[in-house]
Amino acid sequence: MHLPDTLRALIIDIVQEAGLREGLDRVTVEAPRDPSHGDFATNAAMVLAKPAGRKPRELAEEIAARLGQSDLVVAASVAGPGFVNLTLTQEALASVVRAAQDGAAFTALARSATPQKVNVEYVSANPTGPMHVGHARGAVVGDALASILELRGHTVTREYYINDAGAQVDVLARSAYLRYREALGETIDIPAGLYPGDYLVPVGEALAATHGRALVDQPEAEWLPVVRDVAIDLMMERVREDLAALNITHDVFFSERSLRQPEDLVAATVERLRRDGLIYEGTLPRPKGQSEEWEDREQTLFRSTQFGDEIDRALLKSDGSYTYFASDIAYHDNKIGRGFDRLVDVLGADHGGYVKRMTAAVAALSGGRVRLDCFMCQLVKLTRGGEPVKMSKRSGEFVTLREVVEEVGRDAVRFMMLFRKADAPLDFDFEKVTEQSRDNPVFYVQYAHARCQSVKRQAVEALGPQVIEGLADVSALSLTDEGERALMRQLATWPVTVANAADAAEPHRIAFALHELASTLHMQWNRGKDNSALRFVNPDDRSSTRDRLALVEAVRAVIAQGLAALGVMAPDEMR
RNA sequence: GUCCCCGUAGCUCAGCAGGAUAGAGCAACGGAUUCCUAAUCCGUAGGUCGCAGGUUCGAAUCCUGCCGGGGACACCA
Asked: Which CATH number fits domain A117-163+251-377: 1.10.260.40, 3.40.50.620, 2.30.30.40, 3.20.20.140?
């Protein structure tokens, strides 16, 4: 159990002994903003007073008195409307310094008591071209989220849904076919509506190499499936390469077409919904403001309104073919069938209207057993020196993910994408990110890690290699400086941060926590300039140096854990 | 017209599932380098938390209604 939880358990014990039962789950233990309020504070008295019919401050006094008797607590005082502020014993905080040095074991304290099987679907970019910067955000957020869920103890499958069955892959095939003829020496003209990007040139060449002129005189119905399959394969290969450049790999690539062949799983899912009475033939009401181009159409509809959607949704088009939504329902049905407790979709901002219907479908298909969470990534505004950089998939002039990674580096791309709440728009400026100034938080955090390593190197130089051995057993009782205690408090809350970030599905919390920890470390390092007694390495005092090295190592271990979860390198030295 | 997201310092954003005088970075101004990496740090200045109600001991945080910005809205994936 980590320290905040230990304290909370202690408080719950005390409070239960006093006969209080109601509202226990609202009791929290947090590190107050203002360190003069103590190391930790609890709201127990305030949330429990009302149901117990007691006065908050009076109850707080009682709790404080009992807490004061604990081995962990030096002082417990009542403040404000009924906070109980706790100052911890040196030993209590010292235990964190020892524990945190084993970063993995320490982070494992964040593991959930009820681990789940979770599927995280992310990226799922259409295989019609290389990925652009917008895709990078969903990719990074999804990947980091998956990692954080794993730290929380869940079993995670990282999944990519390949939209290889719709009209857009036919467009891809026609575009590739032109490139094929081009490769055979023809002069081609790419009409509007097809993909003009020259990334299809290699596809054309590959087709020419394997098929020669065989496809030239065939009717479209003959060559299209052939060209399409080749094009999709090559596009997906490219997608994987692009993702690899970001150090992202998926466990499962799920093909939309595999829902139709060899077995029609879409039909099976639709049938099941029909048996459950959730499907009917009907026409949708005309939306207001859509008066002009609207015509009433009889369609096969899913009763998503029964599960919180605003309107029922079409599963079959008027020509009898499935809608994209129908395929997607079948796909999620397949995921449910694979035994996941929780499904997560990381989506682009343009999929906002899709969330309610899919959530409804999952609720219907799983009988409410499986939860679907959709997380939206807002747009990335790409600029260079303040000037907007266009990225349009149609224009063929978009900035690809690969270009960005090659220009600014994987670490910077990943960290920048995560140093913002996913549902807030993101500004990404090439010049700022490549500047490598402190404007760029990734360097700030990486530098903190490198600095920890540097301190250890310096210590070895001054005091010999033994000075950094066996640090896991130090007493850490000499770490009484306010800055040192601040670091210890932040370390103590690390497992809580991980747990919260996982439960809220907000990877950016990890990034911010690391930034804060880095800041506190840099601060303490600099305080050693004014006051040499505070330096991490003191050649005249081997014992306190070892305590401080243990603290430094604990900070380093936590930063390393966090950066690893975000997929960012933790360097031993900068440059 | 409906739905979703956003509205916090000049700029870019945090604010941990309501808590104690609202935080950070950048920009501005003033400092710190014989000293473990100045890619760092310290200090000053800067905010009616979009507006108006409501819920309660307590609201930037929850609810309702407006205003403003972005996105999505039947056989497009």
From this structure: 3.40.50.620
